[in-house]
Amino acid sequence: MFVIITYDVEEKRVSKVHKVLKRYLTWTQNSVFEGEITEGKLKKCLASLHNIVNKQVDSIHVYKVQNAKMMEKTVYGQEKNFDSMFL
Amino acid sequence: MFVIITYDVEEKRVSKVHKVLKRYLTWTQNSVFEGEITEGKLKKCLASLHNIVNKQVDSIHVYKVQNAKMMEKTVYGQEKNFDSMFL
């Protein structure tokens, strides 16, 4: 399945959240990760995030589509490849 | 159709981008809007954004699914209703 994960977390937790998501998905925009993932791996990813975030103030949104073909993505402006910025 | 729009724009253009998006979609998270929209209205929305953003540095991602039922959304932590914060 294809997922988009967007997050809005307090500054002190951003890098931890980022490190977890980077293990499973592609960083495409500030606070946005996306990619193909299995149900099992998504569960593991979310369990790791569960241990990091403060549910009283932070928010993580997970958008799932069973088939990436159902989703059309268009980029306007810069398509940042963050991963290459931190080699 | 259902769309998610995420944006990563320079600080000086954030409020203008935000004002445009608020006319068409719901603000659900920092730099994330979503909602049902017609093709025509999405075109108008993107045309307005086109006049605001600097395509050399800013980035706007538009994710489209034809039917909202194809998309499953889960929120972990706070489901912020930004709109009510600025009445």
Automatic annotation (TrEMBL), chains A, B:
Domain of life: Bacteria
Keyword Hydrolase on entry: yes
GO annotation terms (biological process): defense response to virus; maintenance of CRISPR repeat elements
Chain sites annotated for binding Mg(2+): D8
CDD domains listed in its UniProt record: Cas2_I_II_III
Essential cofactor(s): Mg(2+)
UniProt keywords, alphabetically: Antiviral defense, Endonuclease, Hydrolase, Magnesium, Metal-binding, Nuclease
EC number(s) recorded for this UniProt protein: 3.1.-.-
The protein's enzyme class: hydrolase
PANTHER family in alphabetical order: CRISPR-ASSOCIATED ENDORIBONUCLEASE CAS2 (PTHR34405:SF1)
Function (record text): CRISPR (clustered regularly interspaced short palindromic repeat), is an adaptive immune system that provides protection against mobile genetic elements (viruses, transposable elements and conjugative plasmids). CRISPR clusters contain sequences complementary to antecedent mobile elements and target invading nucleic acids. CRISPR clusters are transcribed and processed into CRISPR RNA (crRNA). Functions as a ssRNA-specific endoribonuclease. Involved in the integration of spacer DNA into the CRISPR cassette.
Family assignment from sequence similarity: Belongs to the CRISPR-associated endoribonuclease Cas2 protein family.
Subunit field text: Homodimer, forms a heterotetramer with a Cas1 homodimer.
Annotated protein name in UniProt: CRISPR-associated endoribonuclease Cas2
Gene: cas2
